[in-house]
Specification:
132 residues; five-stranded antiparallel beta sheet; mainly beta
């Protein structure tokens, strides 16, 4: 998540399960709510706003393997009750989080026959031969 200016947040969207639900929902109804949770404090903050999607956004090059950038123009920023936030800590990052210094592995589920026909045309799993 990046603060672009005093009213705008931006974040990358990465390869998912091919169903396009989150971004599809934004295209249909751009009103979004984002809940930020700090598990170490604990604190929560809610941002309501209007989202837009850009596959040619200038920030796209800043995020390895991002497919689009989602920008949210904030309409409301509200504190949110943190009473039930559990205290957690990061143990390790998933190996599937894109980084500039390594190639992101293809998840095993994308190699299964039931998933092959629903993958996007540009999905890296399409370049592989299906498991026999």
């Amino acid at each position: 998540m990046r603060v672009v200016d005093e009213h705008t947040l931006a974040f990358p969207s990465y390869d998912g399960n091919g169903t396009y639900l989150s971004l599809g929902n934004v295209l249909r109804n751009p009103q979004v709510g984002i809940l930020f949770v700090d598990f170490t404090s604990p604190k929560r903050l809610r941002v309501n706003g209007i989202a837009s999607i850009d596959d040619d956004d200038p920030l796209l090059g800043d995020y390895a393997e991002a497919q689009v950038i989602v920008r949210v123009r904030a309409t409301d920023v509200l504190p949110n009750c943190s009473r039930y936030v559990h205290r957690l800590e990061l143990v390790e990052r998933s190996r599937f989080v894109p980084h500039d210094d390594h190639e992101t592995p293809i998840p095993d589920w994308k190699r299964r026959p039931w998933a092959r026909d629903v993958l996007a045309a540009g999905d890296p799993a399409n370049a592989e031969e299906p498991a026999g």
